[in-house]
Amino acid sequence: MRICNLLPAVTPGCCKSVRSCFFAFLLALFFIPVVQGRNLPAVAFLQTKTTITGKVTNEKGEPLPNVTVQEKGTTVAATTDEKGAFSINVSNSKGTLVFSSVGYTDKEMPLNNRTDLGTIVLQASAASSLDEVVVVGYGTQKKKEITSAIASVKAEDFNKGGVVNPLDLIQGKVAGLTINQTQGSNPNAATSIQLRGITTLKGSVPPLIVVDGIPGGNLDLIQQNDIESMDILKDGSAAAIYGTRANGGVILITTKKGKSGDPTFEFGSYVQREFVDKRPHSLSAAQFRDLIKQGKISDQYDFGGNADLYDALINKNNLSQYYTLAASGGTAKANYRGSVYSNTLEGIAKDNDRKEFGGRINFNQTGLKDRLTLQMNIATNINKANLMGGGAADWEPDKPDALSNFEQAVQWNPTASLYQPDGSFTQLEGFNMFNPLSRLAYRTMERDQQTFSGDAKVTVKIVKGLSGSVFGSYQRNMYTDRYFRSSQDWDQRPQSQYKGMSYASKSNWLDWSKTLEGTLNYNTTFADRHKIEALAGYSYQYSTFEYNYLTNNGFSTDAYQDWNMGAGSAINNTDLPRPGLGSHKEDNTLVAFFGRVNYSFDNKYFLQGILRHEGSSRFGANNKWGNFPAVSAGWTISNEDFMKAIPAISNLKLRVGYGVTGNQGIDNYQSLYTLSTGGVYPQDGMYFQTYGPERNVNPNLKWEKKAELNFGLDYGLLNNRINGSLDVYSRKTSDLLYQYNVPQPPFTQPDMWSNVGAVSSKGVELMISALALDKKDFKWNVTFTGSSNFNRLTRLSNDQFKANYLEFGGLPSPGNLGNAIRIKEGSMIGDFYGKRFAGFTSDGEWQFYKADGSIGGTADMNAGDLTVIGNGVPKYMAALSNRFSYKGFDLTIFFRGKFKFDILNTPDLYFGNKKWLPNNVLESAIGKYNGINDDPQYSDYYLEKGDFVKLDNVTLGYNFRFKTDWVKRLYIYATGRNLATFTKYSGLDPELEDTGFTTGIDNRGFYPRTRSWTLGLNISF
Asked: What is the pLDDT of residue 449?
């Protein structure tokens, strides 16, 4: 080998002879130590190199590509590949390697003559969280640049275990966000969502859901293993970019996308069992017969049996199962991710389940020298729901007030066997009584649903710093409801109006929407300290909804069920209930122009401005368009020179934001003249349909507007070992939409939509996260979120449209007890309004306080004696998460609580009263309430403190690490949900509906609240 090849830095040319090479060699001996700045032996370059190999992962065992591996004290370096593997030739086998990567703490590893270092684990840097990317409307921002109230929850922080709704994954994780399953674990029940309290009387309450950029994204298309993150835009300065739909806040859901690297498969699965947490204690057969012996019930009501209907309705063998398989891979230029899943959810109630399957595909490609990018997503969900056993969800087309199966279970006479000796079902013909088992046997109520979503985004880099995007999406949701009552059903018996023949109904629903949005993005930095990011965009969204239905009866055979609707004789037999037929269609359009400008100076000062100009077809001719501005600012105080003297403060940023958002969530066509059908009139032996105006028209009808001021503080202490945020907000929603009574004439209809009222809301939100303990193999992370919220109705009437109060929460029969909640101008949202309990007479009759302080009986009370007696909206919410990690093990213990609110114990109000006999009653009727000998009455006597703390989630998992290329990661876990509740409330569960206006009312549905146990695994290979 020629010496000139060994010494390129010193001898750029090639020596021509042995003598010239010798002189070059001497020159190199002199210059190499000088050039390299080391006191190394001049022959160091001749030393033998040693090859060192290994693999770098994060704390989860996931490989880390592009990690810099450098021999300490030298310029020798290498990087890890897509599998995290590296190979480096070092000069000193006893030296040290330094591993470094953005977002991770540098790590030094002594070689000690080893050639294979195995797996090196890098820990996330405490300061790296500020560089995390947070999704905002129509883009992303680094966490350190955010000036609004935005909460971000990543997939690794989601609640573990099976979920009914994807948003259950972040229940308790975001301060101020309320997520409730109104019927516990019922797989077909709706989820109620509310952010920072109520903002409307009649408009949309939940936040706007945006899935991968699609406004109004369908949650049925989202599976828990497909979600990358959820980002919540909480205040007006963040949500104003979505204009008329953002009064309730915005939840941005980002699904997992394709990434470059070797093809990877991910399999996830869990099985879950539900168990009744607490059941109502109604009288047993023995207790019931004891009351007969005491003469409190006639002996004619002893039917000689021993039944537990509640227990008979429980699906003790329920087993929910979830399976998903995802594949991803590709290059930096073209990559993909696809997933398929199957999900079977079995409720705790019999005939209450949901079976679904579907998939999602993401594809990304970059070309034209990295100037053109295409992103595409396709998702579908096909599900079948059995609704018969769904408790209060039992909806019957001709009986909209159908009662709950479990309510029947409580009042069922326990001495009445559920079946007759001949195998038929026992029927008790008392008030509103039926045998639920008969319904389950002789009725069908199912929903078949298909949901589809497709979207594509094309982005072009026009010039340096300027890019343009076009985004289009299409969503389609279609379902069919079928309902059938057999001729064997009790309601179809020969003595009924159906004359012993069956009944059927069928309805088809379709809604779809298409969205087209174009945006321009401009980013530039000048003078090294000034950074500007600008966004301008246009949005068009068209949505339509249609349905049709058909009902018929008089089927002489059950063989067809609802699959031959024309066979029902009610079409011709006028002695039977009339068949039904109908159809409907409606649509709406939103058009908007929007823009956002972000400016930052020296990573210390941040300013953001937003304006959305939006038009909606739902509003009056005089108010089709509205403006929704927002401005926010941030000051990173910790980056100031004077803060360097306080090393304990790692990050300190002050935020302030003001923004206006809207609410257009009312029915379509409320501002237009529309016709509805009336009676028929005869002419020439024929009958003709009449039509007339359906509503009064208000050309000034417009959206509600919420103006919100938010002050925030983000902080990090001790190298961000402790970090969090504090937000204080004040919001006022004006021009509330409501239907007011109007005189006839001059108006043709008795009510009219108008914008009159106002609601105010104030609150505080706190988040604290800390690495409480950090040892070699053991870590303890703790996170606390807490919030307060106070809502008040500040205005309800004006000179033209007047209302004295609003009432909600109608109490069921019998008794005609009225509404439980009344709201007046100046009052708090959720006020219980009724009588004040003053004791019982010696005969066990009710006594109440009158307005003048005197005491009277039930007959002595009038409307003027009623007053505010409590409030059903929780004023404070809190959650505490503890995560312990030891080597491959992790343990999460999660608590949630709500405080300072009242619950109306409706079950005790009715079934805790002996007057309900000879129907069954709760044990409390002959215990706690034994002294009552009067009809049920609504008063503060049945209001209880609802404060509670739940041990909501305990998860124990283990992360296996394999020294093989076949299996990258295997994680197994066991989760317990709703394991314990600490409360003084005497009912089944203090966590009730606390969104909207019917808050704090424990209804008589009794759908079981459950504890669940889940076993699951996630494996990558």
From this structure: 97
